[in-house]
Write a structure and sequence with these properties.
It is a single chain. It is built from 27 helices and 31 strands. A hairpin with a 5-residue loop joins strand 23 and strand 24. It is extended and about 155 Å long. 28% of the residues are buried.
C-alpha cells in the first residue's frame, strides 16, 4: 500500500459503541449476494471507520489511474468479474494502524468475492448439468422412439415434442431428400401460419423449390439460421421465400456418410423469440440422433413389411402346399391304382381274375359296389358282359347291339354321367331305351383302343347317398384309358408271342445286313468329314485370293468386340479398303488381269500387317482389315497410310505395268456397337467419305458421319411412311397475265406435310427420295391429286401444269399411264400441261419425242421448263411439240440491274418464241421493276412471289376465277 503526506487529522478506531455496528456490517458483508453489494457494504464500513475516500472497480491488467496525487489501495480481487476493488484515499498522512484496518477490510471483501465467484461457478455447473441431463433424456427418448412400436407418424409427433422440450419448436418440419429422383418429401410438417402444408406421402421435385430456404439447406449441407433480412443478404440472388414470412428461421441438415439426405427446420413467427447459436449447435447435435432414429425406424418398418410380405407368402405357400399334398395323395392313390392295373395286365392270370382285380382297384378310388365291363364283338355285332357285379341285375346276358345306355356310350365314344332326369331327356330324344333296374346315378366311360370304342366301363348307384360328379367322371375316364390299354395288352399278348419268333429270325438277318451297312457307313463318314473340312475352309475363305472372306472376318470381329466390351482397353480397328478405278482397269485389260491384280493386292495388304491381324476380301475390289492391339486412332491411320503407300507402287502383271490406289475407311469400337456388322457398315461409310474427299486417302468414321447416316436412314423411313399416309400434297402457284394480273393457270409444286418437321419443300428431301427410289412414287401421288383437282382449279379456259422429270421418260409407257390417269378422273386434256426440262429431251430423244407427240395429239400441252439453263439447242424447239417456253428465274433476277445481260437474253428468248409462235412464261418475278421490264420486252405471262406464293387448292377455290386465254 502507498501513502501520501497530509496535514489533516484522521479519525481513530471507533469507540466500543460502534463495534456492534461494525459487527453488523461484517455480517451484511458475508450475506452480500453480488459484487455490487460488497462494494456498497465496504463503503458503509469505511464510513463507520471514519475513513474518507472513493471505492471503484479496475479491470485486472489496467494501469492505476492518477487522480491529482491521491493514494490508491487495492483492497480485493473479484475472480468472477476479473477486476480489482480499489480505494482512492485523500492526500493526507495516514497512520500505520489504519492500513491494518484497511487490510482487514480487504481480506474480508476478497474472501466474500471468492465465495460469490465459487457460488456462481457452482450454479453454472449445476445449470450445465441440468441442460446435459435434459439433452440426455431427449436423446434417450429419441432412441426409444426409434425402437418403439409406434408408427412413423406417431414417432414424428414424439420427436417434435422432444425437441420442443429443448428449445422453441412450435413450427417444425422434417424434409427427406431422395437423390435418385431428385425430389423432397415432408413426412412431418407443423406450421401455425401455413394453410396449405405439403402432403406427407407426396414427393416434390427439388427444382420446383429452387432457391427456397429448404433448397439452400439441402444444397449447402450446413446449418442455416437467421431472419429473412439476414438470410436474403447471406444468399444474395439465391433466395426465394416460399410460404408465410417468418421472424426467425433455423435449419440443420440430416447427413448420411457425408451426403445430405434431409433436414430439420424450425421457424418462429414471434418478434420476441429468436434462435441462438446455442440452439443451432444443440439442434445440429440432436439432428445426428434424429437421423439415426429415422434410419432405424425406416429399417424397422422395412423389416416389418418384409416380414409381413414373407408371412403372407408363406401362408399362401402353405395353402398351396396343403392342396398339393391332397392332390399328391389322390395322385398317389391313382398312381398306385394305375401301377396295379399295369401289373395285372402283365400278369399271367386269367381274364376273370383280371376283371375282379380291376373292380377292386376302382373300388379304392370311388363308389363301385355296382360295376360292370361290357365289350363289343364287331364280327357278330353283339355286346357281351364278361364281368358284372350288381345289387339287382345279378346276371347280364350278351345281347345284340341296341339302344341301351351302354350302346349310347359306345356309339358316341364319350363318357356319360346321367341321373333319372338325364335318362328321361335322352329317352325323349330317342337316343336310348332303358334296360334293367333304374339307378339313381349312372356313370360310364368308353374303353378305347385303336381310336375306336371297343367297350364300356360303368358304375352306378341305387342310393341317393352315393352319387357321382364331374371329378369322378374325369377320374374314371382316366382309369378307363389304362384299363383299355391293359385289356388290349391282354388280347394282344398271344399275337405278340407268335410275332416274337418271327421277329427274332428277322433280327438275325437284319443284324447281318446292318453289319455290312455299318462298314459302308464308316467309309462314307470318313469321306464326308474330308469334304466338310474342305467345304468349311472354302466357306470361310475367298477362292481367288485365299484370304478370309466376310463370314470369317465377322467371326473374328465378334470375338474382338466381346473382348472390348469386357475390357475397353482391348482396342482394335476395322479398315475398309476399296481400290480406286478398279472397274476401269478390269474393263480395259480384262478380268484375268484384274483377278491377278486382286491377288497381288491381297498379298501386299497382308505384308503391311502383323501376324495376328486379319485381312479379308469382301467381294469385288473391296478388302477389310481387322487390326488388333490399337491404342489410339493415330495407329490405325499409320496402318492405313502404310497400305496406301504400298499399293501406290506399280503392279507388274504379265507385260503390263498397272497403277492403282486405294481409299480406306476406318472404324474404331465404342460401347454402342453391339454387332460386328455395325462396325463394318460404319467403316464402309468412312471409305465413301474418303472417296468424296478425292480418293487415295483414309478417313475415320466419326459422330458427324453417324449423324448423317442416321438422318439419311430416318429420312428414308419417313419417306416410305409418308407415301403410305399420303403426306405429299400439291401446292399451286398462279400463272398470271402480266398486264392485267389475271390468273391464266397454275403450276403444281410438290410439298411434304411432315408430322414432326412441318411443311417441307423438295429441296429438303428430293435428293434422298431419288436415291431411295421413292421419287417416282411421290410424283405419281402428286399427279393423282392434281388430276382430281385440276378441272375445278382451271375452269373452262385455264390449265394446271405438272413437272415431269427425266426419270419418268425412261418408262416406255409414260404417255399411256398419264392418259389413263386423265381419263380415270374425266379431266379434259386441255386442263393439264406437262413441263419438261431440256435434259429430259436429250435422254433417249426418240422415245421422248414419241411420248410427247402422243400426249400432244390427245390435247395435253407441253412446256419447256428452265429454258436457257441447259443446252438451249434450237434444234429440238421445232422437233418436239413444245408450245410454251418458261424462262428460268436466274435471268429474271438480272432484269432490273444496270449493265446486266439478263435483259438481252430474255429479249432474245421472247423474239425466238414469237418467231416460233410459242408462249413465254417468266418464272421468279418478285419485284415490280422486273414485271415492268418484261412488259417492255413483250412477255405477256409470268409467275412469282410478286403475285402469289404457292398455296393449297382449297385456298384458290375459295376465290373467284379470272382466266385469260393464253
Amino acid at each position: 500500500m502507498t501513502s501520501a503526506s497530509t496535514s489533516n487529522t484522521l479519525v481513530p478506531w471507533p469507540a466500543d459503541g460502534n463495534v456492534a455496528a461494525m459487527h453488523a456490517a461484517v455480517e451484511r458483508l458475508f450475506r452480500a449476494s453480488d459484487a455490487a453489494s460488497v462494494l456498497e457494504i465496504c463503503e458503509a464500513m469505511l464510513g463507520e471507520l471514519g475513513i474518507g475516500g472513493r471505492l471503484h472497480w479496475r479491470l485486472i491488467g489496467d494501469e492505476p489511474s492518477s487522480s491529482g496525487g491521491a493514494a490508491q489501495l487495492d483492497l480485493a480481487e473479484d475472480p468472477q468479474g476479473l477486476r480489482t476493488l480499489v480505494l482512492e484515499l485523500p492526500d493526507v498522512v495516514t497512520p500505520e494502524w489504519l492500513y491494518d484496518h484497511l487490510a482487514w477490510l480487504g481480506r474480508l471483501s476478497a474472501s466474500r468475492l471468492r465465495q460469490l465467484a465459487e457460488t456462481s461457478r457452482l450454479y453454472e455447473a449445476i445449470s450445465r448439468l441440468a441442460l446435459a441431463e435434459r439433452l440426455q433424456r431427449a436423446l434417450y427418448a429419441i432412441a426409444d422412439q426409434a425402437s418403439g412400436e409406434h408408427n412413423m407418424t406417431e414417432m414424428m409427433h414424439s420427436l417434435h415434442a422432444i425437441l420442443g422440450s429443448l428449445m422453441y419448436a412450435e413450427n417444425f418440419y422434417i424434409a427427406l431428400y431422395d437423390a435418385a429422383t431428385d425430389s423432397v418429401r415432408f413426412p412431418y410438417y407443423v406450421d401455425t401460419m401455413d394453410r396449405e402444408p405439403p402432403s406427407p406421402d407426396e414427393s416434390v421435385p427439388l427444382q420446383e423449390m429452387r432457391h427456397s430456404l429448404t433448397w439452400n439447406l439441402l444444397q449447402c449441407g450446413q446449418a442455416i439460421m437467421g431472419s429473412v433480412a439476414e438470410l436474403t443478404q447471406q444468399f444474395q440472388g439465391r433466395f426465394v421465400l416460399l410460404g408465410p414470412v417468418c421472424e426467425h428461421w433455423l435449419g440443420v441438415p440430416l447427413l448420411r456418410d457425408g451426403r445430405v439426405v434431409g433436414g430439420i427446420v424450425m421457424q418462429s413467427y414471434r418478434e420476441d423469440t429468436h434462435y441462438t447459436q446455442h440452439d443451432r449447435e444443440l439442434l445440429s447435435y440432436v439432428a445426428k440422433h434424429v437421423q439415426t432414429a429415422l434410419e432405424r425406424r425406416e429399417a424397422h418398418e422395412e423389416l416389418e413389411r418384409r416380414v409381413s410380405s414373407r408371412t403372407a407368402a408363406l401362408r399362401e405357400a402353405n395353402r398351396v402346399l396343403r392342396q398339393q399334398v391332397l392332390q399328391r395323395q389322390r395322385g398317389e392313390r391313382l398312381q398306385a391304382a394305375l401301377f396295379r392295373i399295369a401289373e395285372l395286365a402283365n400278369a399271367s392270370e386269367s381274364l376273370d381274375n383280371f376283371y375282379a382285380a380291376v373292380h377292386r382297384v376302382i373300388g379304392g378310388l370311388l363308389y363301385a359296389r355296382n360295376f360292370y365291363i361290357a365289350l363289343l364283338d364287331e364280327e357278330q355285332k353283339t355286346l357281351s358282359f364278361p364281368y358284372s357285379v350288381d345289387e339287382f341285375d345279378t346276371i347280364r346276358l350278351p345281347r345284340a347291339h341296341g339302344r341301351g345306355v351302354t350302346e349310347y356310350v359306345l356309339r358316341h365314344a364319350k363318357p356319360l354321367l346321367a341321373d333319372p332326369e338325364e335318362f328321361e331327356r335322352l329317352s325323349r330324344m330317342g337316343e336310348l331305351t332303358h334296360r334293367g333296374s333304374r339307378s339313381v346315378c349312372w356313370l360310364g366311360v368308353p374303353l378305347v383302343w385303336g381310336d375306336r370304342a371297343m367297350g364300356v366301363l360303368a358304375v352306378q348307384s341305387y342310393s341317393p347317398e352315393h352319387t357321382y360328379d364331374v371329378r369322378d367322371q374325369e377320374l374314371l375316364t382316366f382309369v378307363g384309358y389304362h384299363v383299355a390299354n391293359a385289356l388290349q395288352r391282354k388280347h394282344t399278348t398271344e399275337s405278340l408271342k407268335q410275332a416274337y419268333a418271327s421277329l427274332e429270325r428277322r433280327v438275325t438277318e437284319r443284324t447281318r445286313a446292318l453289319a455290312l451297312a455299318n462298314r459302308d457307313l464308316r467309309e462314307q463318314i470318313a469321306e464326308r468329314e474330308r469334304v466338310e473340312r474342305r467345304l468349311k475352309y472354302e466357306t470361310l475363305h475367298d477362292s481367288l485370293t485365299g484370304l478370309p472372306n466376310r463370314t470369317l472376318l465377322l467371326q473374328r470381329m465378334e470375338q474382338a468386340l466381346q473382348r472390348y466390351h469386357s475390357d475397353t482397353q482391348e482396342l482394335f480397328a476395322i479398315l475398309f479398303i476399296d481400290l480406286d478405278r478398279f472397274k476401269v482397269i478390269n474393263d480395259s485389260v480384262g478380268h484375268l488381269v484384274g483377278d491377278d491384280l486382286l491377288f497381288q493386292v491381297g498379298g501386299r495388304i497382308r505384308a503391311c500387317l502383323k501376324t495376328r491381324d486379319v485381312v479379308a476380301r469382301l467381294g469385288g475390289d473391296e478388302f477389310a482389315v481387322l487390326a488388333e492391339g490399337i491404342t489410339d486412332p493415330k495407329m490405325a491411320l499409320l496402318i492405313a497410310e502404310r497400305i496406301i503407300d504400298e499399293l501406290q507402287t506399280p503392279f507388274r502383271l504379265g507385260a503390263k505395268e498397272i497403277f492403282t490406289s486405294a481409299s480406306i475407311g476406318i472404324a474404331l469400337p465404342s460401347p454402342h456397337y453391339q454387332r460386328p456388322e455395325e462396325l463394318l457398315r460404319d467403316a464402309d461409310a468412312a471409305m465413301y467419305r474418303a472417296k468424296d474427299e478425292g480418293r487415295h486417302r483414309a478417313a475415320i468414321f466419326d459422330d458427324r458421319l453417324r449423324r448423317e447416316a442416321l438422318s439419311l436412314l430416318e429420312m428414308e423411313g419417313d419417306l416410305r411412311r409418308a407415301l403410305s399416309r399420303n403426306e405429299f400434297v400439291p401446292f399451286y402457284q398462279p400463272i398470271v397475265e402480266l398486264q392485267s394480273g389475271r390468273t391464266v393457270g397454275y403450276e403444281a409444286l410438290l410439298r411434304w406435310r411432315h408430322p414432326d418437321r412441318g411443311l417441307l419443300t423438295p429441296g429438303d428431301f428430293l435428293a434422298v427420295a431419288e436415291e431411295s427410289g421413292c421419287a417416282e412414287s411421290i410424283d405419281w401421288q402428286i399427279f393423282e391429286q392434281v388430276c382430281a383437282q385440276a378441272e375445278a382449279l382451271a375452269g373452262p379456259d385455264g390449265f394446271v401444269s405438272i413437272n415431269v422429270s427425266g426419270r419418268h421418260f425412261r418408262s416406255p409407257d409414260l404417255d399411256r399411264s398419264l392418259l389413263d390417269l386423265i381419263a380415270s378422273h374425266q379431266l379434259p386434256p386441255h386442263c393439264l400441261r406437262i413441263e419438261v426440262t431440256e435434259r429430259a429431251l436429250l435422254e433417249n430423244a426418240i422415245q421422248v419425242k414419241r411420248m410427247l407427240d402422243n400426249l400432244r395429239s390427245h390435247g395435253v400441252s407441253i412446256a419447256l421448263d428452265d429454258f436457257g439453263t441447259g443446252y438451249s439447242s434450237l434444234s429440238y424447239l421445232h422437233q418436239y411439240p413444245i408450245e410454251t417456253l418458261k424462262i428460268d428465274r436466274s435471268f429474271i433476277v438480272e432484269l432490273p440491274r444496270e449493265g446486266g445481260h439478263g435483259t438481252a437474253v430474255v429479249r432474245a428468248i421472247q423474239a425466238l418464241a414469237d418467231s416460233l409462235q410459242m408462249q413465254v412464261i417468266a418464272e421468279g418475278i418478285e419485284e415490280e421493276e422486273q414485271r415492268d421490264a418484261l412488259l417492255r420486252i413483250g412477255c405477256r405471262y409470268g409467275q412469282g412471289f410478286l403475285f402469289a406464293t404457292p398455296k393449297m387448292a382449297e385456298v384458290w377455290l375459295q376465290r373467284e376465277h379470272h382466266f385469260a386465254l393464253p
